[in-house]
Amino acid sequence: MTESVGIHVEGVHFGYPGRPVLRGVDLTVRPGELTALIGLNGCGKSTLLRLAAGLLHPDEGRVLLGEDDVARLSRRATARRVALLHQSAPAVPGMTVRHLVRQGRYAARGPLGMLREGDDPVVRRALRDVGVEAWADRDVDALSGGERQRVRLAMALAQDTRVLLLDEPTTYLDLHHQLDVLQTVVRLREERGLTVVMVLHDLAHAARFAERIVALREGRVVADGAPKQVVTPGLLAEVLQVAGRVGEDPEGGWPVCYPDHPIAALEYENQIH
Amino acid sequence: MTRRFTALAALAVVCAAVEVVAGRGMSPGVVWEVLNGGGDATERHIVFQLRLPRLLVALGAGACLAVAGLVLQSALRNPLAGPEVTGVTPGAVLGAVTATALGLAGWDAPLAVVLAACAGGCAGAALLWLLAGRGRGDPAQTAVHGVLVSAVLGGLTAMVLLVEPGELGSVVQWLVGTTEGRVWEHWHLLWPWALVWGVAAWLLAGPLTLLRCGDDIALAAGLSAHRARTLALLCAVALTAGAVAAVGALGFIGLLVPHLAVAVFGADLRRSLPGAALTGAVVVCGADAAAQLSSRLLATALDSGRLTLPVGALTACLGAALLLLVVRRTPSRTF
């Protein structure tokens, strides 16, 4: 097994014209760590993932994968180091599962290598990892949402990277498939020492599955630490803008949230001043 | 998969055979005799100097247009893209007509026609690119702008023709698309061009397959989507220009054959690009054979010896009907 790779985000600012998104983010994800990013819609979570995957470049600051500045790596070199599972993907008529997963090998094979016939061992392993070998020759468009998400995870795994970034991997799934996807990620990370960063909307999942929770608000990191330290009523109010209580899971010991009602931003400001 | 290719190849042979005997004035028996080394000088001339090159040009042009269409649809992620509706074909026609009118190109300088068609095709595609602006990602928007661009380019072509009419009859045939009167010269010009750009398109099969999955996924998987798309568009324009220079603006082949090819050979462009080439060749050749047979019937019915139906008229009518099906079936959901 090759060495795990960490991610260093150093003083990153990023924005679109007239709309700053990240306003100075510093974050070090240690090699082999499982980190959850949480925050409201538009707080910059997905942007941070895209910066780490090299799909966007910071206006200020830099993102390092191991020793390398992502902005200086070529697209293919980046894709060999980091895989990103997007929140949603367009339909691809006529594409089979095996074929979509094989597309994850692009960076490893190159344009001419993609003309070669057949799966390599990594593709077979990726299909096995998420348990989709049995229907590898079915059309992706004919699958259910949960099955498709597993296939897309397999495509990201086929990139065979040390770093795996997941942007809301469970958003459109039912509870069964949510747990299915998350447990697969946890298992693979333990087996292979992958460094995983995932954006999660569900604080319950973050508290249960992540080792570390990083909370973003308006483009800044406002909380960072183990779930037990971070998940508090104060975090619910400040980051997610809900009033609620926090308890502890009697068996697992991880924090459990009981959100009560949303609070308006103004109300929240009044609470702290 | 091999069986599908074989079946299609067999169909191509059948279409080619029908095409060779479909013309007027010679019975299939005579054609067979000529192919076996018999026949008199006139019959030999008709078969070897007129019918064979015409057949080859039909096959080649069909393959070019179909591959160009599949490349366009994949690169733009747009099921409604095709050389006819993205300004490439009308641009190529305008380029070729203008060059001919200016005396820069013509029957004596066939390569100049191809180059002029290429320049025009690029200009047409660029015009669409600029006009569509932010709507580029949206298939419907691009299609609407494509119609607009095609109309403008068609109008410009008409203006050029009004100023410099040339031989009106041959020009009209050319605007509709026809294989009538195509000889070895056309074929010798078409095949190297088609081969070079066809191979180039096939080498892009990997990136193009990835582009079909959407830019986000393609970028994350390590493809420089912008560069790949530019190269792919170049291939598509060149292939279209080659076909237009050879047979004129044959309608709907580039728009519809790719859908057939993807349905039969799947979304893996390593297979569906050659598949599209073969399907396009079969469709154009078959349509040309059908056009010749119906010309014969019409000629008897209307008692007019000179009537010929251009193949482009037939493909346009068939294509319009098929397009309706595609539009109704096109998915717009995401997952």
Q: Summarize this, please?
A:
The complex is a heterodimer of chains A (273) and B (335). Chain A has 273 residues and is of the alpha/beta class. Helix content of chain A is 35%, strand content 27%.
Walk me through the structure.
Chain B: It is a multi-pass membrane protein. Chain B: The chain crosses the membrane at residues 55-73, 85-105, 111-131, 143-163, 190-211, 231-257, 307-327. Chain B: Its main location: membrane. The complex is a heterodimer of chains A (273) and B (335). Chain A contains eleven helices and twelve strands. Chain A is of the alpha/beta class and 273 residues long. The N and C termini of chain A lie far apart (52 Å). The mean pLDDT of chain A is 89. Chain A folds into two domains: 7-231, P-loop containing nucleotide triphosphate hydrolases (Rossmann fold, 3-Layer(aba) Sandwich), CATH 3.40.50.300; 232-273, no CATH class. The mean pLDDT of chain B is 85. Helices cover 77% and strands 0% of the residues of chain B. Chain B has one domain (56-328): ABC transporter involved in vitamin B12 uptake, BtuC. Classes of the chains: A alpha/beta (273), B mainly alpha (335). The interface between A and B is large, with 41 and 33 residues.
